Amino acid sequence: MQLPRMAKMRQRFAATALEDVRQSVRQTLAEADLASAIKSGQRIAVSSGSRGIANIPLITRTVVDCVKEAGGQPFLLPAMGSHGGANPEGQKEVLASYGISPESMGCPVEATMDVVEVGRLADDTPVLLNRLAWESDGVVLINRIKPHTSFRGPFESGLMKMMTIGLGSHKGATIAHAQGAEGLARLIPAWGAEILDKAPICMGVAIVENAYEETLRVEALRPEQFVSREPHLLEEARAAMPRLMVQGIDLLIVDEIGKNISGTGMDTNVVGRMLLPGVKEPDTPGVSRIAALSLTEESHGNANGVGLADIITRRLYDAIDFKATYANVFTTTFLNRANIPVIMESDRAVIEAALDVQRLEHTEHARVVRIKNTLDIGQIEISETLLREFSHHPDLDQVSELSAMNFDGEGQLQ
Prior knowledge:
Elements: E1 6-11, H1 21-31, H2 34-37, E2 43-48, H3 56-69, E3 73-78, H4 88-97, H5 102-105, E4 115-120, E5 126-130, H6 131-135, E6 138-144, H7 159-166, H8 169-177, H9 180-198, E7 201-209, E8 215-221, H10 226-240, E9 249-254, H11 268-271, E10 287-292, E11 311-313, H12 314-318, H13 322-332, E12 342-344, H14 347-356, E13 368-371, E14 379-383, H15 384-390, E15 396-398
Parallel strand pairs: 2-3, 2-6, 6-7, 9-10, 9-13, 10-11, 11-12
Antiparallel strand pairs: 1-14, 1-15, 4-5, 7-8, 13-14
């Protein structure tokens, strides 16, 4: 098969980022008066999630240090629902892979799947919270605010979701997701309000990133600010998120997917594919087929989101831990996102199959885009046809000449 020639392109996004992340964290915690929220000797749970967040070891360590300086006795608490295989040791391993460990943080990491019922909603849905969070003297949440990959609402990925789904542990996350994607948008604020009223939540540190996965903002919120402030931060995050500048794509090649990249392996907002009943498919960028080539090591085998792809490589399939993946998707109830796509033996075979199935008359003219992953799209590759069409785009710069796709002797794309 004759494959299209590709050119490297630089996508230009707004590049504002914090110059001194540590000092910004300290300043916002001081402005929110963390010291007044903690009494000397109190055990303070500092939450940590399962996403790859820029500067997360630095931000977390700074929060831990500030808690100590305020007189508290901090410990790290995984707040990741069913991730990490839905077990304490697995969740500790996820944190360690991000550089968050007792040694690096200067405090213990404690984990449990045990939950406590802290209340009930009007429809009798139980509100659950991780036992260690409930038994602590205070909880400081740390999470990135960004659009969710499965639903839309005033609270998507952020502090409220971490407090409800993340700290709901496996059992709570399972109950929450039982209402489906649309139900999450209703449940998170209701469940969150109950937890804010009953549990010892003392502060949240909200993180917003720019399109280059750099820290754009950190903002400490007191509990009474969560409901009013987080939706504004979500809109800021939505405006800042990366996107593909080109449109109408026959084949999107994604070099790697993984839980450290997105909760669904690849960000649905970037690839423009949701595949959930009742949830509208995005209008852009208009992708016909998606090929995924590998699974990141940081995913620890959790391939949630692999079902968003049409074709994958054998090496991606061989890296899947089905127990960890199924624990995740059974919790979310979005089983189709763990469906195994067509498997081909090499990158070249994947690409050729994805183009062949579209019955293109001239495959060398196919509209192809290649990205490393959905977090890292500052530099992408586009095919010759797309280059001709989008060469004058104000936010696209060509950085290499057109050249043939390069494969090694095993058919792996270089």
